[in-house]
Amino acid sequence: MAKSVPLGSVYNVPNSLTISRLVLSAVCFVALTGKWYLPALVLFIIAAGTDWLDGYWARKYGQVTLIGRVLDPFADKIIVCGGFVFLAAEPGSQVTAWMAVLVVARELLVTALRSFIESSGGDFSAKWVGKWKMVLQCVAIGLAIFYLWRGALVSDSFWRSATQIAVWLAVALTLYSGWVYVQRALAMARRSS
């Protein structure tokens, strides 16, 4: 595991990529609101790609920072929660309001658990189920935006079904990963008491 560099070294490539993810997410949401689906899709793909790139760069070049450990999951939550919320407002996206609420609730719960555990000196870093959850959520959001764009061109039941499956799988893995993190937090609490 890469060592954290001093807090003063925040101006590096991974943190810049994380900040760009926040900016790109905001512009993507504006594009969704304006029903400019193709630009929204391109922006979303670029923004989601920075999530993998900033983590890879930080580990490879030892540029893990304390601010990066806070900003990166925050940017992830903005792009995912915002994506689900904005898509729930788009008729035909295959994302419903209750799905967006579940995704946001899970993210808030895990953030609260992480804050509590890490403030007590524990390590509550992301596990593989959380990373795969993020990947599947991004696939679902990307497919939903693609379907909205394609739907404006031609009705296609294949893409509708593919989007529905991806969205339902993303919601299911979101709930499962939330359960995994709750179980982990309970186990850590039992060990420390």
Strand content: under 5%
Assigned CATH superfamily: CDP-alcohol phosphotransferase transmembrane (TM) domain
* CATH uppermost class: Mainly Alpha
Low-confidence stretches: none
Number of helices: 6
Most strands sheet: 2 strands, parallel
The chain-level mean pLDDT equals 89
Amino-to-carboxy terminus distance: 28 Å
Sequence of secondary-structure elements: EHHEHHHH
Task: Give the helix/strand class.
Answer: mainly alpha
- Biggest sheet: strand arrangement: 1-2
Q: Could you give the topology of this structure?
A:
Blueprint: E1 4-5, H1 13-33, H2 37-60, E2 64-65, H3 66-88, H4 97-119, H5 128-151, H6 157-192
Parallel strand pairs: 1-2
What does this structure look like?
- The protein is mainly alpha-helical.
- The chain has one domain: CDP-alcohol phosphotransferase transmembrane (TM) domain (Four Helix Bundle (Hemerythrin (Met), subunit A)), CATH 1.20.120.
- It has 6 helices and 2 strands; from the N terminus they run βααβαααα.
- It has helices spanning 13-33, 37-60, 66-88, 97-119, 128-151, 157-192; strands spanning 4-5, 64-65.
- Strands 1-2 form a two-stranded parallel sheet.
- α3 (66-88) packs antiparallel against α4 and α5 runs antiparallel to α6.
- It starts with a strand and ends with a helix.
- The mean pLDDT is 89.
